[in-house]
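Translate structure to sequence.
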């Protein structure tokens, strides 16, 4: 019995040693220009990713804005606006010739105007605000030399401050923990072209 265990252990060790040089070689890390345009989150699609000196740590910044008609509320000349700011620090955990695995702590802040129904004769708005503090694992794959697509999964802490509108009392801040996942309809991208 003892001899069989030694033979099996020796065979497994031999297979591991023969296969490991091939498995261990992953080629050079993905290299590209340091600055690219694109986005990480669809709420803030006007973005930039800037890799610092060694391309191991970067900075993500994104902005978003939208404006909707308030015509459904009886105010055809008025708009309800919203905006978002996304910031993150992508950190390379592992890299292969065409793929980065990143850990990305980040913040997403959103503000959205909502109409105040307590003043139906006058157009009045209040702001609903949302803050996400995130920690994500992101896969960034280079499908062309300087063009990447990315998707991520992770966790988020959310602090939601609803607009103070209507007759019930203002509920105050609400906080949540949630999971994140970007599917194929929300895949981010970056086009790197500045050194």
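Result:
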């Amino acid at each position: 019995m003892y001899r069989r265990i030694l033979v099996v252990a020796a065979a497994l060790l031999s297979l591991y040693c023969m296969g490991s040089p091939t498995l261990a070689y992953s080629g050079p890390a993905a290299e590209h220009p340091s600055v690219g345009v694109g986005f990480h989150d669809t709420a803030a699609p006007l973005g930039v990713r800037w890799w610092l000196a060694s391309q191991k740590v970067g900075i993500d910044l994104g902005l978003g804005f939208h404006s909707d008609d308030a015509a459904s509320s009886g105010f055809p000349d008025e708009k309800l606006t919203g905006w978002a700011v996304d910031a993150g620090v992508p950190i390379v955990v592992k890299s292969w010739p065409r793929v980065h695995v990143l850990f990305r702590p980040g913040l997403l802040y959103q503000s959205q105007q909502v109409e105040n129904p307590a003043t139906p004769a006058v157009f009045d708005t209040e702001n609903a605000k949302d803050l996400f503090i995130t920690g994500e694992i992101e896969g960034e794959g280079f499908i062309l030399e300087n063009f990447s697509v990315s998707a991520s999964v992770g966790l988020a802490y959310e602090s939601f401050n609803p607009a103070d509108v209507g007759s019930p009392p203002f509920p105050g801040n609400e906080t949540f923990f949630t999971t994140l996942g970007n599917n194929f309809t929300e895949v981010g991208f970056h086009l790197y072209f500045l050194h």
